[in-house]
Design brief:
Elements lengths: L2 E5 L13 H6 L3 E5 L9 H13 L6 E6 L2 H11 L4 E7 L10 H4 L2 H10 L5 E2 L12 H7 L6 E2 H5 L13 E7 L5 H7 L3 E6 L4 H4 L1 H9 L2
Parallel strand pairs: 1-2, 1-3, 3-4, 4-7, 7-8
Antiparallel strand pairs: 5-6
Length: 218
């Protein structure tokens, strides 16, 4: 049985997958969501270690790691550490790069300046409004806004550590349209098949039904 390990992006929590999980389980898969919300001063390597620990709890070599947005970097580092356990890596509008890449090194300079300037004295970046994730429906935005959490700046600045093992694992980059950042280019640059999906950046919240078949096809 395939196990999907779903990893949420920045400012979100495992609840981001709540509309996807039932659909994956109904299709006969085992599905786990990972929580990257603690500790408050964590970095990217800490988040990757959380995913690695989750993988280590499973006696399974049919694991599909799915990372949304920032978590694209996280799941690639985790997969690199456990290449014999992970069968496939999926990025959902996800950031990705080679060894040493960080989110701020991949992002436009204006984005990097904005998040650095927004960080408070504890290194926490306040969550942006739901509209930043493509959520414009008033009811959906009202649901999302109170759930968003501050994000540690270190998760964006810490460079990934990759040995190259992740490059031997097949990958898919699911890229939302209209495009916000060049997620299709990031995926192609690391050798992944790119698939387009109409929907906003938080597509797992707004369009779980068309997203799930793409995940199941991996």
């Amino acid at each position: 049985m395939t196990t999907f390990v779903l990893v949420h992006g920045a400012w979100h929590g495992p609840w981001a997958w709540d509309r996807v999980v039932p659909l994956l389980r109904a299709a006969g898969t085992h599905t786990i969501t990972v929580n990257l919300t603690t500790p408050a001063d964590r970095g990217l390597h800490d988040d990757a270690e959380t995913v690695i620990t989750t993988v280590d709890t499973m006696q399974d070599n049919d694991i599909v790691l799915v990372g949304h947005s920032y978590a694209g970097l996280v799941v690639r580092e985790a997969a690199d550490a456990r290449p014999d356990a992970v069968r496939h890596v999926v990025l959902v509008d996800g950031w990705a790069g080679k060894d040493g890449a960080s989110l701020v090194s991949l992002a436009p300079d204006a984005f990097a300046r904005t998040v650095r300037a927004a960080a408070d004295s504890r290194g926490q970046i306040p969550a942006p409004a739901p509209e930043a994730f493509g959520i414009t429906d008033p009811e959906a935005a009202a649901w999302l806004a109170p759930r968003l959490l501050p994000q540690p700046l270190r998760t964006f600045t810490e460079p990934t550590r990759l040995t190259g093992a992740v490059d031997r694992i097949p990958g898919t980059a699911i890229c939302c349209r209209p495009r916000t950042y060049p997620f299709d280019e990031f995926g192609a640059a690391v050798g992944y098949e790119t698939l387009a999906l109409d929907g906003p950046h938080d597509v797992m919240l707004t369009h779980p039904e068309p997203l799930v078949p793409l995940l199941l096809g991996c």
